[in-house]
């Protein structure tokens, strides 16, 4: 589990590739993202996290908000998962990017294969990147233009979420909120990216579940 001393810091690896005459930059979380999983359950997506992975996802979400020319790739297919409640559906990886990058899902397998070995770095974001609670209200989340919403593609066992900087920034708080929880044993704690939230364009709903004891649950 990641340390919670500095909620705006996480180790990453930075990769580069040149494909079809264009330079690409991809950030991945460093090491094995073991205690999280994403499942495609047809009508919605199910994301399971513990405190550490919720914290890391929050930072990666904020990196997507501030990294207009960078792809965030979160490998989630190879981690552990709770044996007591095995989710239905296919296990998926996750890719985050801003709309302006115009990443086509069909290009991803070639791009992923072209990436270099990467350079280890530490992402450390200023606290000012955290969304102001006043910005997260119903009115602020209901953007008038579709480019301000999260839109989804699926290809090669990967879910691609593209959005604007504001929508990534405003929704990152959901992961930080989960990371701060200490719920009762066996309590079901979750958050959702719901169709009524005003943050989803053509993306399906995402049910994010907290698992306090990932390895033994």
Search tags:
eleven-stranded mixed sheet, 5 helices, alpha+beta, 19% helix, disordered N terminus, 217 residues
What's the layout of helices and strands?
Elements: E1 9-19, E2 22-29, E3 36-40, E4 44-49, H1 51-66, E5 71-74, E6 90-98, H2 108-114, E7 119-124, H3 138-141, E8 151-155, E9 158-163, H4 165-171, H5 173-179, E10 189-193, E11 205-210
Parallel strand pairs: 2-5, 4-11, 6-9
Antiparallel strand pairs: 1-2, 1-7, 3-4, 3-6, 5-6, 8-9, 10-11
Helix pairs in contact: 1-4, 1-5
What does this protein structure show overall?
It is a single chain. The chain has helices spanning 51-66, 108-114, 138-141, 165-171, 173-179, and strands spanning 9-19, 22-29, 36-40, 44-49, 71-74, 90-98, 119-124, 151-155, 158-163, 189-193, 205-210. A hairpin with a 2-residue loop joins strand 1 (9-19) and strand 2. Strands 1, 2, 3, 4, 5, 6, 7, 8, 9, 10 and 11 form an 11-stranded mixed beta sheet that branches. The protein has 5 helices and 11 strands. Helix 1 (51-66) packs antiparallel against helix 5 (173-179). It is α+β, with helices and mostly antiparallel strands and 217 residues long. The longest helix is centred in the first third of the chain and has 16 residues, at 51-66.
């Amino acid at each position: 589990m990641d340390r919670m001393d500095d909620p705006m810091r996480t180790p990453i690896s930075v990769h580069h590739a040149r494909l079809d005459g264009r330079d690409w930059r991809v950030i991945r979380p460093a090491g094995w993202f073991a205690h999280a999983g994403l499942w495609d359950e047809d009508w919605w997506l199910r994301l399971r996290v513990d405190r550490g992975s919720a914290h890391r996802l929050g930072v990666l979400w904020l990196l997507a908000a501030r990294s207009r020319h960078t792809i965030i790739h979160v490998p989630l297919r190879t981690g552990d998962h709770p044996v007591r409640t095995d989710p239905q559906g296919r296990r998926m990886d996750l890719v985050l990017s801003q709309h302006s990058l115009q990443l086509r899902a069909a290009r991803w397998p070639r791009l992923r294969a072209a990436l270099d070995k990467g350079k280890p770095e530490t992402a450390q974001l200023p606290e000012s990147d955290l969304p102001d609670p006043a910005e997260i209200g119903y009115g602020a989340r209901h953007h008038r233009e579709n480019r301000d919403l999260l839109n989804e593609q699926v290809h090669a066992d990967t879910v691609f979420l593209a959005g604007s900087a504001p929508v990534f920034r405003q929704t990152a708080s959901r992961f930080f909120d989960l990371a701060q929880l200490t719920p009762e044993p066996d309590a079901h704690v979750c958050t959702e990216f719901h169709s009524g939230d005003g943050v989803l364009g053509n993306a399906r709903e995402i049910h994010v579940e907290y698992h306090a004891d990932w390895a033994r649950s």
